[in-house]
Amino acid sequence: MCTIFILATLVWTANIFGYGVCTTNGGKEIIWETPDAAYLINDSGGPSGSITAIIEGMQTWTDVATSDFIFSYGGTTTSTAHGINDGNNIVTFGLLEVGTLAENRFFYKTWPPSQEGEGLDSDIRFNTYYSWSTTGSPGTYDVQNVGTHEHGHSLCLADLYTGADSEKTMYGSASSGEIKKQTLDQDDIDGITYLYTCPNLKASIEGTSSEYDVLQYAYDNTPDMGTFQSQATVFVENLFIDMDKTVYLKAGYDCSYSDNILISTINGDLTITEGTLTILSGTLALQ
Ligand SMILES: [Zn+2]
């Protein structure tokens, strides 16, 4: 099977844990000033369904509950100004050099020093030298598969190339017919969460403004018959339920505590010696 390299953004990169981030020449991490970016799409030259496929790829990143970054669709454009720092983020189809499946040209501030690394403009192009589809058909490259990867560069996550990275969205090469990059690996989720983490702390007490970065503190401060809440993230701690009180937990919340359909994970022990703990909703997992 033919494997094509997807070229990264034209910036330095550094690996952190199971993901990589982009840095300026001066070593500052590249990040948008606010956690959002809108893209215009020019689907001329792309297969039918391209706009929907590209939006789906953006939404996959937006949906990460532990990050507050939001990609939005700004409508169609007739612009073909790929790689032009004009303040408009665009997605286009056009010719690139052979061997490059798609690319993300990214611009950021280098001055003044206090703003070094702030994102300015990102343009994605799918190389029409290759055959594209929105169906994952054999012999064609899937727009959503590669688009999700390229929008990872927009965050500014970096390409990964070791064998251990091969199932991740940010793995730096793709095959025809491949669709696995449409779904994020935990390391991809950890990457966006590292760069654009929730503004709120990871645990809170329902009906109050009290927030905590440690689940134990949230439990300790929850009154009898009260409810504490946890975000869909990993708590690296041991949780002791050891007070003479009845408390409830709603787990698996998003950044803003508005929806809790996901999983909170304790990477440690859960020990209950006194009182009771009831999981009211969401899911609590032990790791
Ligand atoms: Zn790439």
Helix and strand arrangement:
Elements: E1 3-5, E2 12-16, E3 19-23, E4 36-41, H1 50-62, E5 70-76, E6 90-94, E7 102-108, E8 119-127, E9 132-133, E10 141-142, H2 143-155, E11 173-175, H3 186-195, E12 203-205, E13 211-212, H4 215-221, E14 227-231, E15 234-235, E16 239-253, E17 263-266, E18 270-281, E19 283-286
Parallel strand pairs: 4-5, 4-6, 6-8, 9-10, 14-16, 15-17, 16-18, 17-19
Antiparallel strand pairs: 1-11, 2-3, 7-8, 12-13, 12-14
Helix pairs in contact: 1-2
Bound molecules: zinc ion (ZN).
Residues 6, 8, 149, 153, 159, 172 line the site of zinc ion (ZN).
Task: Outline the structure in words.
The chain is an alpha/beta fold and 287 residues long. It folds into two domains: 193 residues, Collagenase (Catalytic Domain), CATH 3.40.390; 84 residues, no CATH class. The chain is built from four helices and 19 strands. A hairpin with a 5-residue loop joins β12 and β13. The protein is elongated. The site of zinc ion has 6 residues, from α2.
